[in-house]
Amino acid sequence: MTNIFGYLTSSLSRIPYRTIRDAGLFFLLLAVIWEAAVRIFKIKSYLLPTPTEIIKEMFQSSPLLWQHSLVTLNEVLLGFVAAMVFGLLIALAVFFIPLFRRTLYPLVIAMQGVPKVALAPLIIVWFGYGVSSKVIMAFLFAFFPVVISTLGGLATTPAHLIEHFRALKMSAWDTFWKLRVPSALPNFIDGCKVAMPLAVIGAVVGEFVGSSDGLGNLILLASGSSRTALMFATLFAITFLSLLLYLIVELCGSFVWWRAR
Questions:
Q1: pLDDT of 9 strictly over 70
Q2: 127 vs 78: CA distance, rounded Å
Q3: pTM of the entire structure?
Q4: Same domain, 124 and 194
């Protein structure tokens, strides 16, 4: 755990100070405008709480937010790993096997056209209210960017390097492992960066439809009891979770040192 936080700190330290400063000042300005607008126009807190009320609620409900965040985090990670593995396997099958390119690839595209929110009730009926239905929802939201980005990376392998490997009489396996994989890795990482926030959305959507735990369920509970500040606090927790997971993927991508900067 210490190493992970050390790597995250190192990664964040590479962000220019001006970027951090400007972003911090911008969000602070938005919070000040928000606070002032609510107070000036005397908007009721059950309609729109002030940032200070939301922060206060976050501290007061921190054990509850932490408990539900761990549930959602587990669902997101399982769904994202499944999307990463199966997305990679599907991309390889479609790229190297013409039959799958003619059959499996159109199916993948057709599935992407189906509204995932409309599928959520069916997923709950088929797999129940447990973790598995939320993992499947996270998977369905996240796997398509992995497939497309990996296919793009494999397809953009420089042709002259492929010819060079053929001239050296390299085997198909060596060409794949030493040329196509390094060429596709940057695209694969970019696909994972897109997929991670989508996995968070998928898990939360699944919790909205049917669950007894998780941040999505907590939003429903807060809505039912008219605790608007808790609703906003939960939304901020979801945003922070998504941002943190994105930064971890970005950190992993930094080890692919030949990526374009």
A1: no
A2: 15
A3: 0.85
A4: yes
